[in-house]
Amino acid sequence: xxxxxxxxxxxxxxKAVGAYGGSELRAWRLARYLAxxxxxxxxxxAYDYGQPRSEVIEGVRFLRDSACVFERSLVGRLRWRxxxxxxxxxxxxxxxxLEPDYHIWDQADADIYLAFxxxxxxxxxxxxxAVRNKPFILMQGGDMDLxxxxxxxxxxxxxxxxxxxxxxxxxxxxxKRFHRSSxxxxxxxxxxxxxxxxxxxxxxxxxxxxxxxxxxxRMVDLARLSPDVPVxxxxxxxxxxxxDAVKAQAPANVSFVDAVAPEEMQTYYRDACVLVSTSITExxxxxxxxAGANGTPILSLDVDPAGMLTDHGAxxxxxxxLERASGLLQQLWAERGWEPGCSxxxxxxxxxxYVEERHAQDRVFERFERILLSFxxxxx
Length: 380
What we know:
40% of the residues lie in helices and 21% in strands. It is of the alpha/beta class. It folds into two domains: 2-188 and 360-379, Glycogen Phosphorylase B (Rossmann fold); 203-359, Rossmann fold. The strands form three sheets. The protein has an eight-stranded mixed sheet with strand order 3-4-2-1-7-8-9-10, with helices on both faces. The termini are close together.
């Protein structure tokens, strides 16, 4: 069975050529697993960074999508958008179907196509799959997918295909809002064989993109209220204006790391006394899983996916209050020695158990394979 992951943003994870996020990391883990399984061939689309037209990395065939050229400059981005407007095609029934997309999707020649997140791109691919009689799977991203902002993205829910939710909440909302049934697949994470990390901690940690969802400026405000707590922000450059503004406004106790390879992130999670989340919405962020797998508690201003923090004791949610978050941050920093029984260590150990029981990658991978096989049989 051939599977195409239409997730062009994964390539930066492997080559350090741009920003990536949790959806891309999830896609890469699932693709890499399938590529090792007998009976599967896996392809993945990639933005055009000037790499070879086709290359194989860890068993996954990457296809360069030259309709999606990666541009950092404003002029380059405007030129790319103009090109898309000039080359725009249409399949009757859904606007914004771009002819260049057809070529790369045909080139993949897959039995099943997967897209991540409710976007215009996902809607175009879903429509193309319907026309070509190809099975389509939408892997839900954050909860914002339930009310997508892109003008035609919501049409993906009216087209044939299978939705795969990250949480039971998403599954319920998909049925309620769009009358669309779905499967639930937890995000996969590797569980350290030695259990949670129990050594003293060195700083508070923030991880994410510089965008309007992750809200890194709230971390800067929190750090300003907690000047004695050293803060490390691992911030991938997404929105350049947000990126530059956050760096310019940061107090002296904040240090920045622009990008870190996934395998190197474990050191940051192990050394953190707490992972701070300032996001206004999420699905189930990989950063929460990484923190839990390393026994690091989570301090969240707003989000609590599947009740991991409040129901299972892996951290604290402050209801948006920076003042309360500051007090908790200072308390967790005071417990950085990680003595047995301290609240920070106890929350971290609860987080480890939560992740181990629900997100251990071997079980998630096996369920993913079963979902694909079942969907393929129904679609055949």
